[in-house]
Known about the structure:
- There is one protein chain.
- The chain has a domain of 281 residues: 3-Layer(aba) Sandwich (D-Maltodextrin-Binding Protein, domain 2).
- Helix content is 45%, strand content 12%.
- It has 19 helices and 11 strands.
- A 6-stranded mixed sheet has the order 7-6-8-5-9-11, with helices on both faces. The protein has a 3-stranded antiparallel sheet with strand order 3-10-4. The protein has a two-stranded parallel sheet with strand order 1-2.
- Strand 1, helix 3 and strand 2 form a beta-alpha-beta unit.
- The longest helix is centred in the C-terminal third of the chain and has 26 residues.
Amino acid sequence: MVTKRSINRSGIAALAVTVVSALTLAGCAEDSDSGSSGSGEGLDIGASMEEYQEAFADVDPIELNTQSPGPKGSATGAPIEKWVAAVEEWSDGKITFEVAYSNAVAEPTEIDDALTDGRLDVASTLPIYEPSEYPANAALIETGFISDQTVIAGALQSNAWPNEVAFNNDEVMAEFEDHGIVPMVPIFNSGSQMLLCSEPRTGLADLKGAATSASGTAQTEQIKALGGSPATVAYTEVFESVERGVVDCANATLTVGVLGGFIPAAPHVTVNSEVGFALAPGGWSFSKDTWDSLPLVAQQLMWDRLDVYIASNIEDKIWPNTAEAAKLVRENDGSFQDFEPDALSALEAANAKLLDTVRDGDGVSDGGALVDAAETAAAKWFDEVEALDIPAEVGYQDFDENFTPGDLDMTAYTELVMNEIWSARRPS
């Protein structure tokens, strides 16, 4: 039975009080719209579908190209497919999309180039794969482990606060501008990062020397702190790598585990509800050239329907993939376990060091202010999520048996994030 919860996070709450002023960074952007305004008349925020369809009556048809990372109908591609369907319906068919599946147009590291050279108009970008080109984005991404690691509240919180910080940081936004990109959702994730191993590994003795896949510099440092040996392995190759003994563990989300098909080979999962690994998130981005060519009402509609994308990323992607992963773990005689105290202490120390590295690094001009803003926003959005009266955490092990997306109406959450984060940047 799903019950309501009340979790005491006094340490985070206290942090929010002590550094609340850090959200207003020196050099941060004031609230503004998403970029150049389109031509023609627009609609007020909150316009109905009927009002939008009427406004599109005299708009010439608009055809756009996008792609999904997964096959058609997959949970991984659900946010894209649902957003596309909503935009097409609300525009009365005046906006249509040609959707390529399984990254058929551009591989992850090439998507930003595909947005600028015309192959794609809107797609998921991955600055984490190009930190030298997106140093400010990389710095923000490297603070992502401060999120709650639980499957319900953590998913809601961690997909809100990084966007608030990103939109408010001039340097982060300038990197998108410099690459010819309009960030619709600057940062979204696919769930908490954890260790998926071929055998149980929860303490430093178990983890010593364990070859572990990593997808970023922060994860590499965390794995080293646990005594592991970081390895660069694409998620599509993890299954074979685990089966052949090339790697012992994958540092990944359960969504990636399901997409990559490697959970049967690595069903022993180690995760802590509060101390986590750095994420490898993506962003939902538009080609600036295409965006600037669109009529204002089209820009506004696609911006307003981000509520569909944001909700679907959680309720149609993270949670169903978590449920599928829980089932696969049990079917393959695996389990979800916490870190032993020595490993947890080592990971906490590594995370503190990583935050110091961001503070002292040159990813942004004021790393200390960026970290303060991230910590404050994370604390704020944990409290915001808790205030929504969300269901109790049910844990990862039996998630598929104890929770369904229908247990939580996402409307209040999406209205909150749209009102507090996205509405101020709406094209006008």
